[in-house]
Amino acid sequence: MTKIILCGCGGKMGAAITAIVNERDDCEIVAGVDVNTSCSRSYQVYSGIGDVTETADVVIDFSHPSTLDSILAYAVDKQVPAILCTTGYSEAQLSQIDAASQKVALFHSGNMSLGINLLIALSRKAAQILGGSFDVEIVEKHHNQKIDAPSGTALMIAKAISEELPYDSRFEYDRHSVRRKREHSEIGIHSVRGGSIVGEHEVIFAGHDEVVTLSHSAQSKGVFAAGAVNAAVFMKGKPAGLYDMNDLIAE
Fold first, then answer.
1. Which run of H or of E encompasses 60?
2. Catalytic choice (142, 201, 216, 221)
3. Of 33, 44, 120, 165, which is least surrounded by CB within 10 A?
4. Per-residue pLDDT tens over the stretch 184-217
5. pTM (2 d.p.)
6. Which of 64, 146, 159, 238 is catalytic?
């Protein structure tokens, strides 16, 4: 039985993870952490992870980048692996994650969906075959409550593609401020925010007289919640290091 501390338990992802765990018999949530300690859950909810008294095997974080320091400190001190699902980390915070992974097992992914990670693999392959002569554009769409842009997933896709291109690429987030032709070295990344869109990502390889498009659409937050819970079970007892969805898929 994998015992889980769920950070961000009061949010929509927290509710989705709670529902999925309740349907499984290989894990349980022993405590939650949320700024809203009055949220209705079947487990004790604390305002900070440092206040948690229950013993756990792993931490799942779907909260906010501002909580990273306390979560990493807890994980290192208690030697409890952490699943870091929050997006919007700064470069300095990503460096913090790398450093902490030398002391404790950390799982970090900008997207916990199996389908998205397949999309990334396919985008890599397409970049290997088409990248030398095709322009690359990425369009991501999310609900109007999402704060960060572009999405962490869009950046994951862009970085994966850039690693396969035969030239040095750069990310172009905004073209309205300049008047010039598109440079071939650009990877365009565009964000749409509206309504209740759960998450859609489209990768466009535009060549001469032909276009190849790869896309993924999440129909509910359940796909991300399921991935996070699977990662939690996978990470129980893992040695120090930085893990991601590729490690989970290969297991």
1. strand 58-61
2. 142
3. 44
4. 999 999 999 999 999 999 999 999 999 999 999 9
5. 0.75
6. 146
